[in-house]
TrEMBL record:
One of its GO terms (molecular function) is hydrolase activity. This is Cell Wall Hydrolase. The lineage of its organism: Bacteria, Pseudomonadati, Pseudomonadota, Alphaproteobacteria, Rhodobacterales. InterPro entries: Cell_wall_hydrolase_SleB (IPR011105), SleB_dom1 (IPR042047). Residues 118-227 form the Cell wall hydrolase SleB domain.
Length: 232
């Protein structure tokens, strides 16, 4: 039995050939009201089948193959699936493929590298939470790159010190950057922000900024203290 898809292909090709061949005029098979309808219909079908046969005889073999190929089912492509569970461990990150992304991913990856590459995996996720919480807040720029580079230009007047400390921002530890790149990818893709309770600020234990006395402390992870800015 000829597969249905192949029959459809033949039918389509035949219809194309009918209109492309310089065969007898279709007027020759026009149904006449003066003839018996069933007999006239038989004549019409016979004429069309003859034209179809002639069409296949003149059709290019490559054209037939291309037409048949268009009816073949396309293989299903499996979309990349996000991990069902999130673990704050190096072994979990090592199990994931190397991450990549657009400018927003690059900005977040660099911020995590320069601000938290020496922290634990949980500490890196926590810093990423702060940056994304700022993006969501109306008090800060609404993009990751905007948040990371806010105030950059004047020495020590920026939000993230590495962008205005006067030192070149060079990646000297590619393995560390690969790790934080995976953290950035997970967070941008919607990983839960469950570590800092909506924190918008953080500082290391080596400093004691004035704003820390006015903001609610939400967490302490590694060397970083996390705070949530009061909402207006």
């Amino acid at each position: 039995m000829i597969p249905l898809a192949r029959l459809k292909a033949f039918a389509l090709l035949a219809s194309l050939c009918v209109f492309s061949l310089p065969s007898p005029s279709l007027a020759e098979v026009t149904l006449s009201h003066s003839n018996d309808p069933e007999q006239a219909l038989g004549f019409e079908l016979t004429a069309l089948l003859n034209q179809e046969r002639a069409g296949f005889e003149h059709a290019d073999a490559d054209a037939i193959e291309r037409l048949l190929a268009s009816f073949k089912p396309k293989p299903k492509t499996s979309a990349a699936k996000a991990p069902k569970t999130l673990e704050y461990s190096k072994s979990f990150l090592e199990s994931l493929p190397k991450a990549s992304g657009d400018a927003e991913w690059q900005c977040l990856s660099e911020a995590l590298y320069f601000e938290a590459r020496g922290e634990s995996v949980k500490g890196q996720f926590a810093v990423a939470e702060v940056i994304l919480n700022r993006v969501k807040s109306g008090a800060f720029p609404n993009t990751i790159c905007g948040v990371v580079h806010q105030g950059t230009g004047k020495k020590y007047q920026c939000q993230f010190t590495y962008t205005c400390d006067g030192h070149a921002e060079a990646i000297h530890e590619p393995a560390a950057f690969t790790q934080v790149g995976k953290v950035a990818r997970l967070m941008i893709d919607g990983a839960p922000r469950a570590l800092t309770q909506g924190a918008t600020h953080y500082h290391t234990r080596a400093v004691n900024p004035r704003w820390a006395r006015q903001f609610a402390k939400t967490a302490q992870i590694g060397v970083h203290m996390f705070y949530r800015m009061p909402q207006a």
